[in-house]
Amino acid sequence: MAAKAPADQEEEEEVCRGVVEFLRRRHSSFWTRMTAMEASGMMGDLGTLLPLTLAMAEKGSIRPGAALLWTGVFNVIGAYQWDLPMPVQPMKTIAATAITEGLSEGAVAAAGIFTGGAVALLGLTGVIEIVNRVVPRSVVSGIQLGLGLRMVGVGVAYVGARWTALDGPFLGGAAALAGAAAAQDLPVALLIVLVGAAVAAGQWLATNDAARYAPYALGVAPRQPTSSDWAAGILRAGLPQLPLTTLNSVISVCALSERLFPDREKATRRSVSTSVGAMNLIGCFFGAMPSCHGAGGLSGQYKFGARGGAAIFMFGFLKIAIVLALGETNLRNAIAAFPRSLLGALLALAGAELARAGAKADGAETATLATAGVTIGLSNTGAGAAVGLLVAYSELLCEKLKARRSPTTREIPMHEPISCSC
Asked: Which of 20, 61, 282, 375 lies 20 to 30 angstroms, CA to CA, from 27?
């Protein structure tokens, strides 16, 4: 083998030094920003993460230890990549299908691999930018508004109506009021989770034999989906998930991150889509649950104090440590013991923050309201986006027809507010 030219070797060494220096600076910045508020912010996504993880585990669709281990790994990688509180969430349509229809582990893995591969292809080929140009900003805001209000509704359902139970409306209501009224420098989510962890630990210790404690026992063996798994996973879960991931987990989350952090380096649509692809193309073969970066998780973590990658850096290592310490069975019992009313309060507050962001951006536009209304009414983000696109382009067509009748009228770009009287 021919030796490398000195110039090529020096270039490689320079690249390596640049990467090492980048990681060193990022790592150093995390340690200086490990505050109580960042720790509080990292809890903002638990209202979605824990209930879906537990429900899928109860159906035999995932192993909770392996699933949370991988989300922790992806959290740490994301922290270095963007230095934003970018969440790692379960893909909700795949999760809902697995919970309601009892998909096997292989089918869930196949659904995640298919969706991740498709989204990565959109990013690597640049097609995601075409999708972004085609989808008006008002529709993206409508997705955020509708999804946020749906999260509020699900959170209220978690709280329930068992007025005499400890884990009920009084506990959940108190947590929600505390979260809504707390000062911005109070780590309220961290306090809520600590209360919930104390309750869960008490129940877990009271109902589980210490002899069953089995740390490090994780279901991370390679998955080999069968042909029937591929068919069921792609047709029943992967295809319905693809529009939601493209719109909410790439386009919407990038738009939201620009609004929340206008002075930061952007999380580009290409980088987010390729990240979603890598998480699922690699992780789902080894027990990861299908995962994405959702706007709801970002808004929740921001709501509770996260302002950078330090939050998810801590969160990732915390997940890894807990999973390794408890193992599969004990982790499942611990999640099941966590008060659902507190998860509901966290989810409702995160949803309210996401809905506020969507309404603040384009809340008065017809396309925004149409998208949100259908998203809520049908519990289907894809249907909401389709209706929103129809309304937005109908308004644009009306405006173009008006402009033809009035030659002096300026043509209005797609992303500006549009009114139509025809």
From this structure: 282
CA gap 38, 29 in Å, rounded = 13
Give residue for tokens 């809902």.
96
Residue 419 contacts by C-beta under 8 Å, 6 or more apart in sequence?
A: 395, 399
Pair 240, 114: CB distance under 8 Å: no
Look-up of token digits 């020096």:
10
The predicted-structure confidence for 213-244, as pLDDT tens digits, reads as follows: 556 566 667 788 999 999 999 988 888 788 87
On whether the CB atoms of residues 104 and 255 are closer than 8 A, the answer is: no
Do 286 and 70 meet the contact criterion of CB atoms below 8 Å apart?
A: yes
Domain count, the chain: 1
For residue 47, give both structure tokens: 């209202």
Total length of the chain: 422
The residues near 173 (Cβ < 8 Å, ≥ 6 apart) are 159, 345
SS3 labels along 161-229? CCCCCCCCHHHHHHHHHHHHHCCCCCCHHHHHHHHHHHHHHHHHHHHCCHHHCCCCCCCCCCCCCCHHH
Q: What is the DSSP letter of 291?
A: E
Residue 254 contacts by C-beta under 8 Å, 6 or more apart in sequence?
266, 267, 268, 269, 272
Q: Determine the structural domain holding residue 54 and report its residue range.
A: 26-364
The reply to whether 21 falls in a domain is: no
Summarised one tens digit per residue, pLDDT across range 137-191 is 888 888 888 888 888 888 888 888 777 677 888 888 888 888 777 656 677 788 8
Tell me if 52 sits within 8 A of 300, measured CB to CB: no
Q: Is residue 333 situated within a structural domain?
A: yes
195 CB neighbour count, 10 Å cutoff: 15
Predicted model pTM: 0.78
- Can you tell me the distance from the alpha carbon of 212 to that of 207, in angstroms, rounded to the nearest whole number? 11
- Please identify which residue in the block is written with the tokens 């909700």: 92
269 within domain boundaries? yes
- The residue among 159, 181, 157 whose CA lies nearest residue 171 is 159
Kindly state whether residue 113 falls inside one of the protein's structural domains. yes
> Residue 90: enclosing H or E segment and its boundaries?
strand 89-90
Tokens in use for 319?
């997940």
